[in-house]
Design brief:
heterodimer, A: mainly alpha, 2 domains, B: 4-stranded antiparallel β-sheet, about 25% strand
């Protein structure tokens, strides 16, 4: 499941149809098509319809799933709670994510934000080191041959397998959790960055050579921007993996955090609370992915297509 | 040798694994200041390689390239290249694509304000000022090539190198850009070496046409001087005897005496 090197399809900014230069004053060229603002009520209605078209199908699917789930687990002796009984058992957890009574008895917002902080620190370190190493490995063919096999092996090690080693060396829960996130998410970042740099169109390098850019300028002005779409593919895979890693490692490390919360509720046999926590985990994971994707779209701008 | 650009006995070999292929053999050519020279030949004859040697992007096995008395060692802005596929940096706007070159070439020689004005001046030269804030993927192929030319001109090169710059364009756009480059050559007196495979383009634009034999071990077969007065008008040339004579000579070289073996 880990580091695919194919680029995720970042939606490319659509180029307006640009007619070729036929007259010496082609000011009309490449004008974006104007939206039909003249017919305003119709335009609003149309975008409403499009919005509804995007939002209604998933809602219907969720409602149907909930209905089937309710029907299957309606029996009070069922091993798994139905949606309605989850609502009854975990109402406070669902409706108030912000309560804090101390002693680990707090709303899910606090657990999730603690986990997110760990992800933010570990992932930021992985991104910084990963991009740097990736560029070096991508730009240097000898370095690539030397370390790529090693990376390909290391990246397949599951996050939790790193935990005992990091605990043995770092001895404390917090740095160990950070290390697990770091070591899990760095491989796809390195590998994708390296691929991006290796796939650099030679013409861009030639432009840099004709301009006699020095190595630093070559790096910041040509290589880094050209590899940006690939880098963000790596970051997206990496952030997903670090979210996987933090949940798993918190289960073992204890303390505050959404992973430990799930484990704690399991020990207390509160399945309903676990289901609520899973909904949070999924939602936050989804948002993390969208966040990096949006960031990538912004950073890549035109770099995706020429 | 007193030519402004002097190519002296260039041999180029490429080594891939154990096979060594000789691409160019004993190529010598002198280009005077302000001359417009085109190099024509069948595809694969090494004409782009020749251009890359002058640009400094390819190192010859033997021989040397001398520009204005200085031997070429590596690429530099004094030999600006317009690449076939424009090679604008897609993450920069049209303006920024030229600015990056101007900032590098004129660092310490022009103030920020002067560099800004110089970028705009060169955009004006290729009539692209209206698109200065657009990104390369928002403008047409012909426009991209105009910007590519502006970027090269903005470096104030001693020799402007054009590598089949209009090869990927449709006929109408190509004609407009040919007129544009002819006018720029007329106005600035830039020394230009252009690679092409289009006979009409070669005759229309150049002072001399360098015809290459087929590779491997390609070399210069013949050099034809085009005795047409400038500025040349596309329409008038259609009925000009000298134009047709030149055209015929190039065609005869390419298709009768040095027909491509691999079409």
């Amino acid at each position: 499941m880990t580091a695919t090197v194919t680029r995720l399809p970042l939606p490319e900014p659509e180029a307006p149809p640009a007619p070729d230069v036929l007259s010496p004053a082609p000011d009309v060229a490449a004008e974006p098509p104007t939206p039909p603002t003249a017919d305003k009520p119709g335009y609003i209605l149309e975008s409403l319809r499009r919005f509804a078209g995007a939002i209604v199908p998933p809602i219907v699917t969720i409602m149907m799933l909930l209905a089937v789930w309710q029907w299957l687990c309606a029996d009070p002796t069922a091993l798994f709670p139905s949606p309605l009984s989850i609502w009854e058992q975990s109402r406070e957890l669902i409706t108030d994510p912000f309560f804090n009574r101390g002693n680990l008895d707090m709303g899910l917002f606090w657990h999730v934000s603690t986990s997110l902080q760990r992800v933010a620190i570990g992932f930021a370190m992985a991104a910084g080191v990963g991009i740097l190493v990736g560029v070096i490995v991508g730009a240097n063919s000898l370095a690539h041959r030397a370390v790529d096999p090693l990376f390909q092996v290391l990246r397949t090690i599951p996050p939790l397998a790193w935990l005992p080693i990091s605990l043995a060396i770092l001895r404390e829960a917090q740095p160990s959790a950070l290390f697990v996130i770091f070591i899990t998410s760095i491989w796809p970042i390195i590998i994708n960055t390296a691929v991006g740099v290796r796939n650099l169109p030679p013409d861009y390098l030639n432009v840099g050579r004709v301009l006699q850019l020095n190595p630093l300028e070559m790096f910041t002005k040509i290589m880094l921007p050209a590899a940006t779409p690939y880098i963000f593919t790596g970051l997206r895979i990496g952030v997903g993996m670090s979210w996987l890693a933090i949940i798993a490692s918190e289960m073992l490390l204890g303390g505050v955090g959404i992973g430990f919360f799930i484990w704690d509720q399991y020990n207390a046999s509160r399945i309903a609370d676990i289901v609520v926590a899973l909904a949070w985990v999924g939602g936050v994971g989804f948002l993390l992915d969208r966040f990096i994707a949006l960031l990538g779209q912004f950073a890549a701008r035109g770099a995706a297509a020429s | 040798m007193s030519a402004y650009l002097s190519i002296e006995q260039i041999d180029v070999t490429f080594t891939r694994g154990r096979t060594v292929s000789n691409v160019l053999r004993n190529v010598s050519l002198g280009v005077d200041r302000g001359d417009f020279v085109t190099v024509i030949g069948h595809s694969g004859c090494g004409k782009s390689t020749l251009l890359n040697v002058v640009a400094g992007l390819v190192e010859p096995a033997t021989g040397a390239v001398i520009v204005d008395g200085v031997s070429v060692a590596g690429p530099g802005p004094d030999r600006a290249v317009v690449f076939q596929n424009h090679s604008l940096l897609p993450w920069l706007s049209v303006y920024e694509n030229i600015r990056i070159a101007v900032d590098k070439v004129f660092a310490g020689k022009k103030t920020g304000k002067e560099r800004h004005a110089w970028v705009l001046h060169n955009l004006e030269l290729v009539q692209m000022i209206h698109a200065k804030d657009k990104r390369p993927n928002e403008i047409s192929g012909g426009m991209k090539q105009r910007v590519g030319i502006a970027r090269a001109l903005a470096m104030e090169p001693k020799v402007l190198l054009l590598d089949e710059p209009f090869g990927a364009l449709d006929a109408l756009t190509r004609a407009h850009l040919q007129d544009a480059i002819a006018e720029i050559h007329q106005r600035l007196g830039t020394t230009i070496v252009m690679i092409t495979h289009d006979v009409d383009e070669a005759v229309l634009l150049s002072d001399r046409i360098v015809m290459m034999t087929n590779g491997p071990s390609a070399t210069i077969g013949e050099i034809l001087t085009v005795p047409l007065a400038r500025p040349r008008k596309r329409l008038d040339l259609a009925e000009d005897g000298a134009y047709h004579h030149c055209r015929h000579q190039v065609l005869e070289f390419l298709y009768a005496r040095h027909a491509s073996r691999a079409a």
